[in-house]
């Protein structure tokens, strides 16, 4: 039986947090990280190839590709940061070289780049050193290194000049530097300091020109270190219209967006411009500036409950295909989008939007995974609040929907038509429709972390804390409740025949339940281990469990048969194939292990690089063809299960997948209606097209007739022209033949003349040749004679020279013998001097030996002292090293605290925004109150004006009354009593209307004042209630935030005991006792008590409802009584006022009678005229006096009302002393004095 292996088949997801995480390999293939792999994805054929990461890697940090697209560099984190270079032209993308920091300890490389010729490579390390390395990477040789910045100004990107391999650009927070490699050193070029800008990205536009983007949304072009062009990328919108400029819109700047990525291409460059936006810039005619030509946006997601959230994604990478036809981008939420530039150019004036490159991926940790039997689909759920349905055969996303709550678990029904999802508030059973995921049943299970359908589909299990509920799929009744776990249940698994259920919990217990009797059939408790996942063998006899103790346990009959250690790596999940031949486990570092069964105590597994975060779920399909894994990194990996020969596993029986889908009746009717409408529309279009075709045929027939007639005319004219040309051609042929004949005759004559002349020339040349040949023979004979003479002279001279040099040689031999004799004498003298020098040297050596032995003794003593000092220094060094390690741990702890504080600050900023919004609303209400106060002040001002006018009239009337009173006294003496009575009657008739008018105005003023007081009292009540509600809400928010902060702090302290299970258990129990209220604990009460409670509750609710109805009726009657009493009060007040007026009139008449009865005079006629005139009417005087009194009284009342309003304003100011000023100020009141 051959071993089983897993081969990575397909991946759904993009690894976030990787710099430069997207590249084009060729026109149809892109490269991006997914999990702990680099994926080569063919856009047209939809296949994927994988480049796995290094073992024990902590994840990728940055990518880089060479200019010729042959080499890929991957930066990975680990004990030491490494850079791996892969050869992409090799079929398996084999590893070429591994680069590191050498003697310098580098934690991570944040940015990398190849040179244009792919010979050199640069890498920028991260904090705290920020060292730039310059490699000749094929020889793994570091050419140079330099520190680019300090820890407070991090570097974001480095790049090599594509036109010069020795020039490097470095950009970051307050950093924009150019370095040049020369003489083995990286030297910084002259460049202006840019400490105020945070440069997020840059790109080379030419040999001397660099364009950089800042966090504040500015594009800056530098040439040779000088700023040449600067532009702010802002978004504008028309907010209002200017009436003085022909209704032109006035634009206001909304926000400056950060430019996180820039890429250059032949026409210009493309850059990100804020959330979900990409701008395309092209060079202008002067080649120095750039203009924006196109804006491309990420479209809203219609499957989300908030479609606008997709538009807020930040662009993190942007690439253009080699042919510059397609733009592909990646976002901070792990999505890939693309657009064809030709389509963007064609849609002028329209909004251009990206499209998904392949599918929409999860943007958060995946918490749930499930498969079914009848369909080749996968269901996943994530903390990004989405549920997605994938097809494992076509490798596509079939359904996708986002909800308003986070999803913690998911389970597919074996038929593939239903899905169970555990949300934070409820457990929902949903239908998988043709284009939607729709809820049709909810269960009150909060934050269900595990749920699973039985293999038959008739039951499903849901975990609620430490209790497992089993429901019927058909009746939705709670069939069983499995109780026994003391800790939270982490995993459940059904047996093949659904008669048993296996569960494991955090308290270290593994239980096997009988699903018919709800009894425990077996148990295994190991308190030192907190189990995370469990599975059961196909024969339901063996249980396999993994937990935090880094071992795989095989359990049978309540006993642990075998424990397989995992080598310091914790297993997080486990799955067994249906054949029972292989176990697959997921680890906390993201790897997958295939373990052969039966288990061996030794290392007998194959490990695969899969994810960059802990594996959360793992499932094998029912036909044993695929292994599915999901992780906290948001990626879904599909593994093909094969044997070592590369063949798929044999299936026990062929599975035929169902093709049925669910659709609601309303959707079906709507689609049928749409189809009918479309059919009618097609028929109408057919008729319309036929009509248009007939019209076009008629037009074309007419045009063809016109064209045929014109062509016939043209043909006739052309025929006549051809006939004329033929006659001309014949004439020209005759003339040409004649001229040809003449030319031939002339040519023959000239040829004969030339032949005769050439024959004469040849004869002359031949004679010259004979003469030259004779001369050459004579010259050859002369040269031979000269050579013979020269040979004879040479032999004679040689003999003379030999005789001369032989004599010379004899002389030299004699001189040589003399020299040899002299050398022997000198050798003897040298031997004697040598012996003497050796003796002197021995004596000196002895002296030196003595001296150096003494020096060596001293040095040994000093060496011993130095060794003692060295031991002391080593101890000091070790203590300092421990201090450094402790300080590093403290720094890490402080960093974590800083991150927590930053999160707290962010939450507080959100609270501040909410409070500011509430304050703004209060400002608006206060502004309304101030407007009301301003209106009252204005009314008061008008009343004061009215008072001033009345005062003036009173003074005028008093001036008129004084002389008239004297006249009246004289006239009253002469008036008769009867005539005076008639006069008084007429005066009374004339004065009643004026006095009644004044009383009506006074009543209206009273009514207005009372209504104003009622409105003010009502507004005060509303204001006090809203203040109380606001304070209560703020107090609740502060209490909840304080509780969350305390819980986070306690949880952080609890995590510190992760290596100590006992203390961890105690701390978790303390957390549970401290933060779990009695209402959170699920209690099971006696059904009789529940029924009695429900009966009493219904009785009390009915009593409350009847009392409410009675209260409403009483309130209506009471309101009617109040209205009636108020009406009666109004009538009584009016009657009292009438009586007062009559009393005033009676008193005035009595006064007049008394004054008239005492005096009589002679001027009776003049007196009557004067009394009959309106100026001298005493009733008018009484009315004027009453009007003056009423005016004073009204003014006094208004002053009291103003005083009361001012006191209320003072009270409000004391309640809200720190109220911000209102946006608009009311004009000041001007009073007339």
Summarize the structure.
Mean pLDDT is about 85; it is low at about 235-255, about 990-995, about 1080, about 1160-1185 and about 1220-1233. The chain is built from 7 helices and 59 strands.
| Sequence of strands across the biggest β-sheet | 24-25-26-27-31
Number of helices: 7
User: Globular, elongated, flat, extended or rod-shaped: what is the shape?
Assistant: extended
Distance between the termini: 114 Å
Helix content class: 40-55%
Residue windows where pLDDT falls under 50 for at least 5 positions? 236-253, 990-995, 1078-1082, 1160-1186, 1218-1233
> How many strands in all?
59
- Structural class computed from helices and strand pairing: alpha+beta
Rounded average pLDDT:
83
- Indicate the proportion of strand residues: 25-35%
- What would you report as the Rg, rounded to the nearest angstrom? 54 Å
Largest sheet: 5 strands, mixed
Protein architecture, described:
The chain has 1233 residues and is of the alpha+beta class. Helices cover 43% and strands 29% of the residues. It has seven helices and 59 strands. The strands form 15 sheets. The protein has a five-stranded mixed sheet, with no helix packed on it. Strands 1-59-58-57 form a four-stranded antiparallel sheet, with no helix packed on it. Helix 2 (665-972) runs antiparallel to helix 6 and helix 3 (977-1055) runs parallel beside helix 7 (1178-1215). The relative contact order is 0.04. Residues 367-641 form the EML-like second beta-propeller domain. Residues 769-840, 877-974 form a coiled coil. WD repeats lie at residues 359-400, 482-523, 608-641. Keywords: Coiled coil, Repeat, WD repeat. Pfam families: Beta-prop_EML_2.
